[in-house]
Task: structure prediction
Amino acid sequence: MYFWDIQSLKKELAANQVSEHESFQYFMAHMVVISLLFIPFTSYNIYDIASSILSVPILVFGLLYVHKQSSGGQFLTQYFALALAWVFGIRFLVAFLPFIFIFSAVSPVETSMWDVVFFSVFEIVFYWRLGIHFREIKGFPPSLVES
Result:
């Protein structure tokens, strides 16, 4: 299981070398992270509801976009290993942590319109970058995959 080395993971995915067992490990890690992200820290207001509702179409269109970028063979394996899941998810979170800390420092305690905008942009950028990695897997030449 990879935690940071996205190039090696993409090579294994392009060569269909990620087993169902490994896929399950990535899936489990993904579910744990998602469960932790949805722990409510404050009371809900209208912006919390707006954010939750807005996340649904972002998720749907994000997944449709990523699926369109994929090679079609092992979409779920690639999604759970690359995405939220693990290697890309960790790297993406680390890249966004400074923005999250800065935003948290200047944001009011209660969810505001700016929270909705910030986290919507966060999700959109996540799916956009994920689609780029899927497109790269599809474009790996056989010679690169076999090395």
Notes: The radius of gyration is 17 Å. The longest helix spans residues 113-138. The mean pLDDT is 79. DSSP finds seven helices and no strands in the chain.
